[in-house]
Amino acid sequence: MTFTHRPVLLAEAVTSVLGCSDQTEIASSTKKIIDGTFGRGGHSRLILSKLNLQSQLIAFDKDLQAIAESKKIHDSRFQIIHDSFALMEEHIEIETVDGILLDLGISSPQVDDPDRGFSFRQDGPLDMRMDTTRGMSAAEWLANAEQNEIARVIKEYGEERFALQIAKAIITRREQGESLTRTRELATLVASVVRTREAGQDPATRTFQAIRIYINQELTDLENGLRAAFTCLKPSGLLAVISFHSLEDRIVKQFMQGLAHIEVPRGLPLTQEQMPKPFAELLARIKPSAEEIKENPRSRSAILRVMRKIKSQNGGRQL
């Protein structure tokens, strides 16, 4: 079965990471671009269509299905690395990249394929790993984690107010010798505990989000990946990040604002020329248009943030 993915903020993200929308200007310069989340290649394909023949696009992805999809691109300017974008510093020389794009979260094909275990709407194995070659599945974690740990994960990463009750129900089921191995089993259990929910939202939404984030260490990867991206960018390089929920966006926002803001003690006798310059400049905060949200409801929570690197930290190494 083929599962399709519609990239969110496609034109806006590509324009941001390339620095402009003028095709003549883009084609006149040689660039090195990183697509840190290849997915099904929507952003990468559009970027390649705009780069000149001397340019280079390097993509990253943890998902083997994404790696397989990348093999359909027959372009000498393109390469993909089966790894997390959080580890790009291990593969890319520092301060050599003109633009980096990160499209966070989970792709539509991952959600729509029941065999991946991400969806509470379809029955499938309770896996949730983006990289199925390594790590513990959601079912394995739920079969071994302590109640307090389960409750913490669901509350912290899902912002679920019924986290403790859900954790207790999971442990009770486990003590009765009934392991959770299927997505519908978990969704049904959560629904039996969560009595109230926002209109239109499935009771299991927050719990599935939380477990997925934890299993894939998504927020840790994001924090490490943002630091790695800043290190790999040239001065004047661009970083564009699309986030889909408040936990991601908060990390991106704080990271970018921290680089763009310099604290100077009051009263220092400094001229304008002597004032320290920030490490980065905030360029844009973009949300999908009403038309895009209508055509693709999954885009409604997306936020694209863009910054430009001004100078390095610690002689080129990120703090």
Any idea what the shape is? globular
**Total beta-strand segments:** 7
| Helix content percent band | 25-40%
CATH secondary-structure class of the largest domain: Alpha Beta
CATH architecture annotation of the largest domain: 3-Layer(aba) Sandwich
Can I get a quick summary?
By secondary structure, the protein is of the alpha/beta class. The chain has helices spanning 10-18, 23-27, 42-50, 64-70, 108-112, 138-142, 147-158, 163-175, 183-193, 205-215, 218-232, 246-260, 290-295, and strands at residues 32-35, 56-61, 78-82, 97-103, 233-243, 280-286, 303-309. It is built from 13 helices and seven strands.
What can you see in these coordinates?
The chain has 2 domains: 10-108 and 218-316, Rossmann fold (3-Layer(aba) Sandwich), CATH 3.40.50; 132-215, Putative methyltransferase TM0872, insert domain (DNA polymerase, domain 1, Orthogonal Bundle). 39% of the residues lie in helices and 15% in strands. The protein is α/β, with parallel strands linked by helices and 319 residues long. The protein is globular. It has helices spanning 10-18, 23-27, 42-50, 64-70, 108-112, 138-142, 147-158, 163-175, 183-193, 205-215, 218-232, 246-260, 290-295, and strands at 32-35, 56-61, 78-82, 97-103, 233-243, 280-286, 303-309.
Task: List strands and helices in order, with pairings.
Blueprint: H1 10-18, H2 23-27, E1 32-35, H3 42-50, E2 56-61, H4 64-70, E3 78-82, E4 97-103, H5 108-112, H6 138-142, H7 147-158, H8 163-175, H9 183-193, H10 205-215, H11 218-232, E5 233-243, H12 246-260, E6 280-286, H13 290-295, E7 303-309
Parallel strand pairs: 1-2, 1-4, 2-3, 4-5
Antiparallel strand pairs: 5-7, 6-7
Helix pairs in contact: 1-3, 7-8, 7-10, 8-9, 11-12
